[in-house]
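Technical note accompanying the year-one report. For the benefit of new consortium partners, we illustrate the data format agreed upon in the data management plan: each record pairs a sequence with a structure-token string. No post-processing was applied to the example shown here.
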Amino acid sequence: MTFRGKMAIRLAKFVAKLCLKMGRQGVTWAGLIARKIEPDILKLLSDQIREKVYIVCGTNGKTTTNNMLCTTLQAQGKKVICNRTGSNMLNGVVSAFVLATNKDCNLDADYACIEIDEVSTRRVLPTLKPHYMVLTNIFRDQLDRYGEIDITMDILGKSIKMAPNMTLVINGDDPLSLSLAQKSGNPFISYGISEKVFDTAEDAEIREGRFCAMCGKKMHYNYYHYSQLGDYECPECGFKRPEIDYPATKIEHGDHLAFTVDGKHIGAKYKGFYNIYNILAVYAVASHSGVNMEGFQSMLDNFNPENGRIEHFLIKGTDIELNLAKNPAGFNQNINAVMADAKDKDVIILINDRDQDGNDVSWLWDVDFDRFTDQSIKSITVSGIRCQDMRLRLKYVDIPSHLEPNIETAIRNKINNGTGNLYVLVNYTGLYSTRNILKRMEGEQ
């Protein structure tokens, strides 16, 4: 490590510790400071990785998939660099490497598992030079930041070409991901769910892939799983779902998840149909890159998504599940997970509009909130900066809601006067503050 690099690392670590003492996360500040002192700090540190660099990208599922991949590698006794907190822009990526260095300002790591925001790929990929990129899916997200979905596709397409030796691991059920892979020229493998799971399709659900990404004609689907994910084919140009390299069959979902891949029965004790894709993505990239998969089920049995992704709390007899819901596709899947629970329940929805969330909350009108008319939903509380917008959205589907802008007050009210079964759905900037509140309340018992 160069003298300048050591100075950058030491000052960045000092800033991170200072931020923690002040009650702030400090991750992105550490990366910013390190880059200011040594602009090449990411290259200097990533070159020290002994084996492989994996990155995980896509609209939904990045953090869970990335953390699960990291845990899979660590279960093999490997040393792994990982941005587990979900800080996935350039400064957060740099921080993951900087804060993992030893007292000599060097890394002792076999692998790196790095989650990267789609827009940030163009700043990270030329330096990081990953061996594998997992692409979870491409949905519409934060219109005022990403623009329409073709802008995200364009950014990702150009970024992937900056790493021509990188192998893509794509969700083959997503026509947008497949079209990116085919146009990139990079080697790629696919994973997907190779059977019809749902008897009916929600035709009202927004589908970004209804038109062929190759020729623009309307696509034909044999079945949907959700959003544009499913078994598709263009009758005009022949673009279609590929022969899947890692197909999941014998799907079970509801209060647990299970499927079969490579002749192995894989099960998980948490909910959310979308998590089948996250688990399958990890299995595919780990297996393809030569990781021993014998202990994969054991890893899943002990894996906790954490960081507010399907995270559970028990506070004064109330079961609380916290989850991130930041765009239409993700929110609809959250609603599916809530409705899979037949017990009486309360729901709190927190919507903010800070820069990281996107200031445009019009996406709320693309979410199927009418499903919350079910009798098992005993109350809905809206919270956060844009709680009035959320309340109005529910009013348009004749769903009454309670208004409580302060999330801690909203949670305490439901603990004291609720069903004992509470779901808290928050968008991005509300996630860590709400998690910290729940952790503190858990410790007060």
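Partners are asked to follow this layout when depositing records. The longest helix spans residues 3-21.
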